[in-house]
Amino acid sequence: MAKLISSLLLTLDGYAAGPNGELNIFPVNKEFFDYSHQFTDRAGTAMYGRRTFEIMNSYWPTAADGPDASEHDRKHGKWYNAVEKIVVSHSVADAGPGTRIIGTDLTAQIGQLKQEKDKDIVMFGSPSTVRSLMGLGLIDEYWIFMAPIVLGQGLPFFSLETKRTDLHTVSSQKLSTGMVVLHLEPKA
């Protein structure tokens, strides 16, 4: 049975992106990208909320094609093009080949996905979708990359509607950029 894994970048004050959705506020390097490859190496499916999917799908299908593509772009682009993509959305009707849309009865649909998949399902970003799935108890692992930044404004991860979720820390590690990686799982 597959696990649903959430990988999120967050600032100390809980923002998942800058005020205009920018992600360049996060200090990433090869060490960070090596972490992301740990998830893709064990995952056969990518899951996104609608907005994150639109961002990812505008970049990754051709990211490896350019002569100046980085090692990360080549590896992640190849993975992205090979895996099934799941988009959690009520408003998207079709997202193209190799992509499935789910939006109603998420508990049943994600439960079915976990049963049918041999490899894990990884969700990069997608903060509002993560909040929804967290509230339904559907996420099996959280990998939070906490940046040593207080942003003061931006796209908040937590909201007043966020339900209490008790987690335990499996591990933590400080990266050379100063980010702290928290590996968390729901308490049983």
Structural class by helix and strand composition = alpha/beta
The CATH homologous superfamily? Dihydrofolate Reductase, subunit A
The CATH topology assignment is Dihydrofolate Reductase, subunit A
Could you tell me the mean pLDDT?
Answer: 93
SS field, number of helical segments: 5
What sort of overall outline do the alpha carbons produce when their principal axes are compared?
A: globular
Query: Helices and strands, in N-to-C order?
Result: EEHEHHEEHEHEEEE
CATH class: Alpha Beta
Radius of gyration: 16 Å
Spans of at least 5 consecutive residues whose pLDDT stays below 50 are none
Largest sheet: 8 strands, mixed
Alpha-carbon distance between the two ends: 18 Å
Strand content: 25-35%
Shape-level CATH architecture: 3-Layer(aba) Sandwich
Quickly count the domains.
1
What does this entry look like structurally?
The strands form two sheets. This protein has an eight-stranded mixed sheet, with helices on both faces. It has a two-stranded antiparallel ribbon with strand order 2-8. It is globular. The longest helix has 13 residues, at 30-42. Helix content is 29%, strand content 30%. The protein is an alpha/beta fold. The protein has a single domain (4-168, 179-186), classed as 3-Layer(aba) Sandwich (Dihydrofolate Reductase, subunit A), CATH 3.40.430.
